[in-house]
Task: structure prediction
Amino acid sequence: MRKPLLLSALFASLALALSGCDDAKTETAAASAPAKQASQDGGNLIVGITTGDPLAVNPLYASDRTTLTIMQALYAPLYSFNGDKIEWGLAESLTPSEDNLSYLLKLKPNLKWQDGKAITADDVVFTFNKLLDEKQHSFFRSMFVYGDKPIQVSKIDDQTVKFTLPQVSAAFVGTLVQIYPIPQHVFADEKGDMEKSTKNDAPVGSGPFKFKEYRAGQYYALTRFDDYWNGKPKLDAVTYRFAKDSNSANLALQNGEINMKMVDPQDVTRLKSSGKFDFVIYPEGRLAYMTFNQNIDSMKNKALRQAIAYAINKDELVQAAFSSLDYAQPAASILTPDTLYQTNDVETYKYDVEKAQALLKESGAPANLKLRLAYINTNKTQESMGLYIQQQLKNIGVAVELMPMDANAMSQRSLDMKNTTYELSLGGYIMGMEPDGYKSLYMSNEAYNYAHYKNPAFDALWNQGATETDKTKRAEIYKQVQQTVANDMAWYPIAYTNAVVAVDKRFAGTKEAEPKPVYMFQDLSKIYQQ
Result:
């Protein structure tokens, strides 16, 4: 395949798929806005967080929303996408070879870590060597292994890195966008598990704000990094304040103790009435879903899983959980609409109580079947989903015990590959446009396969999809992936969601900061206090 065709087509697809935030809109609260003031340096932006404390603040392990949100301010990516163009971060170019089996990544000159040390090709090579080390169990590893062979990463000079692929991959450029380098000089002497390293407690990053202080359960404080590659940030500081629940966080938001927060759809009307906030709403490329935990014998029963799916009116569920279809749409596939090769041409399990009851009987489930449904206790939409699912399954004679859990406890339970604490759980993910990125959630032996669904033929499809370069054939592979999940009802997709971020009107620059799934904004250096 010729180099120009591969990159031009792929970059365009990446850009369009990741540019959902081009659809972002800002709604001003129904009150007279203050007169527009000029941008000024200084100020402390306080961001409300209700998803628990961060876990390992290290880009090779960050997977929960809290850690990813904080990490975005601490670290910088090699590149990202906005609209129909690539936006270079630490890198300034990525050039493929004629046979597409290698790529040269060129870093920008004069880059610095937040401790003043130079960022070089050595850091990028070190980062990849660590994530490819099986002992380090980074979930990124599987994304850079093709046909059981990992990519090779080598230094050409201080600013140039060479990636050598064992075979041509249509997924490489799309997965590389997810990697944020870590500093070699900080972690070089770390012999053990980097996820548990105490060096993550005071991270040294490359982003617009650097670590200052962390108080568990209270706040995570950052200060401005003047040598940030994209220009000196306008704010003096960013502080992430942790709240135990959305109600207390919303009260702090209204009192001016918090300046920015991702809010639940149920809270938008009340917050709008205060006239204090602008609302940035954008497609988040997120799937809300329910997992069937097949570590428990009852959940290995396909007929029972299908009975549960038919017993739920998905349209009503989405309406109940998100208040309005303005904030979410019913989902058919495990791939989100911004993902390449996503299709709705799968079994959708249209609400059918009679079919659900027949399948329940076919499953041989006991008459007094009781299932436990876990979800995050601060998530209002998940709470609403849980209550609705509980009522719907009661209609077919299945009792559901609701298990609201602390976010960190939920994450730890989910990552336990022997977890039998609950049969059902609610969750969500944002994986971007490259479908290969999803395989860490679905392949048999991956820690993030919370369903513990094991199917060698299914695993083979994921591996084929990563390396197939013919777009028609690749589309068919991922269609089979989506159909397999739907036919087996191994996971239950619920909704494709929109993000809603409330921003205190005293702060501006959100358009320039670029709304971004998970993180709220791509680059907080652009936000300023008016």
The mean pLDDT is 90. Residues 471-488 form the longest helix (18 residues). The first strand starts at residue 25 and ends at 28. Residues 291 and 491 are 5 Å apart (CA to CA).
